[in-house]
Design a protein that fits this description.
globular; mainly alpha; 9 helices; Butyryl-CoA Dehydrogenase, subunit A, domain 3; 66% helix
């Protein structure tokens, strides 16, 4: 069976994530392909928005799927695959951002400007596009955890509890990180 020939339900939606996870756990490659087909765009998009770049985002998306598909047995609620893989993306992105920042500080990597236009959709309303451009131009200065929390809140529109879950942090820690990030954004012309 291939991803294109998946059985469909009466709604035409195909098997649920839970059914696909169960089949993938049993070694069915078509189910792994179906999970990738269903969630690949979301994973890549989230990777691009959190890392603010296409090159590293492709690698992050591939690594997130590789990790998820080889650790499916750790997923307690198979229907929560989308949320779980988003958590993998967020936590892996945080680690990569911390590593990237350290390499720049040590002089082992150059700081690369964010290609804001690659992230902001041409169809975005003018005010939203302007806010996103402002945000992404400043993000390189932020510590990784503040940066990720701010992107999840301002760009992804996640609730505080969702951010805490995705980042593996307490709600109080997320609130502190967001407050610090907002102060950094507000201090643009003060230094």
């Amino acid at each position: 069976m291939t991803a294109e020939s998946l059985p469909t339900t009466r709604s035409g939606a195909g098997p649920s994530d839970a059914a696909l996870v169960v089949a993938a756990r049993a070694g069915e490659s078509w189910a792994q392909q179906a999970l990738f087909a269903r969630h690949g765009r979301m994973v890549l998009g989230l990777s691009q928005r959190v890392l603010a770049g296409r090159e590293d985002a492709d690698d992050l998306a591939q690594d997130a799927f590789l990790y998820a598909l080889t650790h499916l047995e750790t997923l307690q609620n198979p229907q929560a695959f989308a949320s779980w893989i988003a958590t993998i993306v967020v936590r892996t992105a945080s680690k990569r951002l911390r590593s990237r920042r350290l390499l720049v500080r040590l002089g082992l990597r150059r700081s690369e400007p964010v290609d804001v236009e690659a992230i902001v959709s041409p169809a975005a309303p003018a005010d939203a596009a302007a806010e996103l451009r402002h945000l992404y131009r400043r993000l390189a200065e932020f510590p990784a955890e503040e940066r990720v929390a701010l992107v999840l809140r301002r760009v992804e529109g996640f609730e505080l509890t969702e951010i805490a879950e995705r980042m593996g942090l307490s709600l109080a820690t997320v609130k502190r990180r967001l407050a610090s990030a907002e102060r950094r954004l507000g201090s643009e012309g003060e230094t």
